[in-house]
Amino acid sequence: MTVRKLGGATIEKVEEICGAGFKPARMFPKFNQEAFDAQKSWMVPDHVEPGSDRLVGSVHTWIVKTPRHTILIDTCLGNHKQRTNPGWRNLDTPFLNRLKACGCPAESVDFVMCTHLHVDHVGWNTQLVDGRWVPTFPNARYLFGKREYAHWESERGRQGDGKVNDGSFDDSVLPIVEAGKAVMIDSDHQPDPLLTIKDYPGHTPGSIAINLKDGGRQACFSGDIMHHPIQVYHPDWSSQFCTDQEMSARSRRQLLEDCVESSALLCPAHFPGANAGTIKRQGEAFRIDWDDAK
């Protein structure tokens, strides 16, 4: 993997899994085939599977190293977790070894930051040890958005069956709280001098983006505010997984406008291949100029 430098900080993507998933008509309720086809040539094969048109997605974490801290942004799916999706069930990947190979052993992590608390963003918060889910990163504080955590805690109380977010709230979030390692944060929280947080609700009630800025340059870690690069060109296409379709679309457009204004490198949670880029205006929408590092 390529290490991107931003001022005195570095950014590195570590992938857990990657592959083709949903067809776009299933993923996006507002899908339009003609609009999709107009962009398809550049999306194949990194972002769209040849022949099937299935959307290709990556599940990865971002390692951010500043002069003061080592931070993980989103922690993927995790090993040995019993999920409904067969491709996510009972994984056994060398993810921790991949982190270590990037100079990020588990004990070196200072902060784990989750853009939201969906199943594929919290999994490596914990690992199975002697039949118990325990924090994977023993020296880290785990930063959860207050509004996001409160929503899923309420959902768990309402459902009463421990199956919130496909069981991930119980096996990947609550053990962190019970271990005393969770910090509930608002958007004014600043864990490092180079990091800021901004609210972009809609995908989930408490979705956030995490901004890194140094030396006049900025990167934006946007989680699932967008899942696929077609949404850069069609920001009104919210995914079927968005809690509030219209709010998600508004937040996505605001995120893209913010990235244009700041010239930020957009670093989403699920873009494979050329997985980050700079956003430019294009008519009433936007385009992405890819950063070639993979």
Topology as H/E string? EEHHEEHEEEEHHEEEEHHEEE
- What overall geometry do the principal axes of the alpha carbons give? globular
The CATH homology group name: Ribonuclease Z/Hydroxyacylglutathione hydrolase-like
Q: List the strand order in the largest sheet.
A: 1-2-3-4-5-8-9
The percent range for helix content is 10-25%
The radius of gyration computed from the alpha-carbon positions, rounded to a whole number of angstroms, is: 18 Å
Distance between the termini: 6 Å
Arithmetic mean pLDDT = 96
CATH architecture: 4-Layer Sandwich
Sheet bearing the most strands, described?
7 strands, mixed
How many beta-strand segments?
15
The fold-level CATH name is Metallo-beta-lactamase, Chain A
Low-pLDDT residue spans: none
User: Strand-residue fraction?
Assistant: 25-35%
Q: Any idea of the CATH class?
A: Alpha Beta
Going by helix content, strand content and strand pairing, the class is: alpha/beta
How many domains is the backbone divided into?
A: 1
The helix tally amounts to: 7
Short description:
The protein is an alpha/beta fold and 294 residues long.
Keywords:
six-stranded mixed β-sheet, 23% helix, globular, alpha/beta, 294 residues, 15 strands, 7 helices, Metallo-beta-lactamase, Chain A
Structural account:
With 294 residues, this protein is of the alpha/beta class. The protein has one domain (4-291): Ribonuclease Z/Hydroxyacylglutathione hydrolase-like (Metallo-beta-lactamase, Chain A, 4-Layer Sandwich). It contains seven helices and 15 strands. The chain has a seven-stranded mixed sheet with strand order 1-2-3-4-5-8-9. Strands 10-11-12-13-14-15 form a six-stranded mixed sheet. Strand 3 and strand 4 form a beta hairpin. The mean pLDDT is 96. Belongs to the metallo-beta-lactamase superfamily.
